Amino acid sequence: MKVLLLGSGGREHALAWKMVQSPKLEKLYVAPGNAGTAEIAENVAIAVNDFQAIADFIAENGIRMLVVGPEDPLVGGIRDFLQADGRLGGLLIVGPGKEGALLEGSKDFAKQFMQRYHIPTAGYMTVTRENLAEGMQFLATLKPPYVLKADGLAAGKGVLIIDDLGEAQSELEQMLDGKFGKASARVVIEEFLKGIEISVFAVTDGKGYKILGSAKDYKRVGEGDTGLNTGGMGAVSPVPFADEAFNRKVEERIVCPTVEGLKKEGIDYRGFIFFGLMNVGGEPFVIEYNVRMGDPETEVVMPRLKSDVLELFEAVASGHLEQVDLELDKRFCTTVMLVAGGYPGSYEKGNAITGIGRVKDAIVFHAGTKRQDSQVVTNGGRVIAVSAFGDTLCEALKQSYSQVAELDFKDKNYRRDIGQDLL
Questions:
Q1: Residue 360 pLDDT class (50, 70, 90 cuts)
Q2: Edge-to-edge, what's the strand order for the sheet holding 146-150?
Q3: Strand ranges (DSSP E) for 42-164?
Q4: What is the mean pLDDT of residues 168-172?
Q5: Average pLDDT of the chain to the nearest whole number
Q6: Phi and psi of 303, rounded to 5°?
Q7: By C-alpha distance, which of 228, 238, 236, 199 is closest to 419?
C-alpha cells in the first residue's frame, strides 16, 4: 500500500524506518520529512497543517493510509477534515479525530475525563479570568512546588513548576493575560506529585488496545536533570522499575478505563495514546495524555517492536486490532539526542554533520536535519538521536554513547547521564 506520514522529527524518522521494513509497503511519502526520511522514503514539501494540500496529495497519489506524527494537525482536526472529503472514502487514518485529540489539546478536558472515569491523577482546579480569585486561594492551599499548566497546546512550553507562592500567583496572572497566547486563556493549577516519571504507549482501534511498552525520557538540557526543559535529550525502554505488578496497575487503573471511557463518550478513537505517568511509591498517576507517540521515546519504542508495524496500523485504522499479535524485543533500547549548541535557547542552523556513515551497531534517527547540496546539515535544535540495543540497560547505554562519539557538528551538545538514575 501507499502511505503518507506527516511530520519532520526523530519520531517520524523512527516510524518511517519501521514502516519500510513491512512487506505491505508499496511506497512511503513523508511530509515534510528530514534528511533521514529522504534516504528511505520520498519527502514531500507540504506543511503538516496544510490540510487542503494534504487532501489533494492523498487523492492524486492513491494514498491508502495516513499516519499522523505530531499533535498539531490532530488537535486541529485533520481526521475530520479528510473524512469529509468525498474523494477519500477508503483512506485509513492512524490518529484520532478532533474530539479524541482533546485529551492532549485541553488539559481541562483531560482532567474532567479522568475524574469521570476514576483514573488516578493529581488534584487540580481550572482557572480563567472569571474565577481568578478562587484560583489564587486554591494555590495558597497547596504545598510547594506549584504546578501551572496552559490548557491548550503551547509547543511544549506551557507547564511551569514554581517553588514560591507569590511567583506562582504572578505567573498565573501573566498566563491568563496571554503569556502563551490563546493556549493559556485557561490554566490548570495542579497538585505537585513527587515521584519518578514514566511513559506508557498504547494503540487503540476504538474498541480494544495493545500496549507498546514503557519508556523514560529526559527533558532537562543539563546533566542531573538541571537547566531548561527541552523536547527530550534521550530515552530508555523498557523502564526497569516498571515490573509486572506496576504494569498491571497501569493497565487496570489507567489504560483500560481510558479506552472504555472514550467508548462511553461515543468518541471513535483510532491511534496512539501516550500516558505520561508519575510513579509515586509504586502507584501510577496520570500527569498528561498525548494523542501521538513521544519524541525521543519513539526512537526506543519502535526499534523494540518486532511485529509488522503496517499490519498493526491497518488493524488500528480499520477496527480489527484484536486480530493482530504484538511482539516486543525483550532487550533494552536506549537513545541519546545530539543537540545544537545553545538549544533550547537560540542556536545556529546549517552546520555540516559528519560521521553518520561511521556509526555501527546503532541506529541514527534524524530529527532536525536537512540535505544541503551533497551534505547533511543541522536544521533544528534537536539534531540526531543515536539508538542502540543491549541485553542490559548498561550495555545499551554503552553502545549508544560509543556511537555518539563518531558523529560531529559545530557546537554539538548532549547529556552524558541518560539512564544513569535507573542503573
A1: very high
A2: 124-127, 187-190, 146-150, 159-162
A3: 42-43, 65-68, 92-94, 124-127, 146-150, 159-162
A4: 96
A5: 97
A6: -60, -30
A7: 236
- Quickly state the pLDDT bin for 182 (edges 50, 70, 90): very high
Where residue 8 falls among pLDDT bands split at 50, 70, 90? very high
pLDDT above 90: residue 245: yes
291, 103 Cβ separation under 8 angstroms = yes
Q: Residue 273 is which amino acid?
A: I
Three cell numbers, residue 199: 511513559
- Segment 351-364 shows an average pLDDT of 96
| Those residues with Cβ within 8 angstroms of residue 282's Cβ, 6 or more apart along the chain or in another chain | 245, 246
CA distance 102 to 104: 5
Element (H, E) at 39: helix 35-40
As a whole number of angstroms, the distance between CA 185 and CA 172 comes to 10
Dihedral, 160, 162, 167, 168 alpha carbons, nearest 10 = 60
Q: CB–CB of 379/368 below 8 Å?
A: yes
**Would you state the cell numbers that stand for residue 57, as one nine-digit string?**
496529495
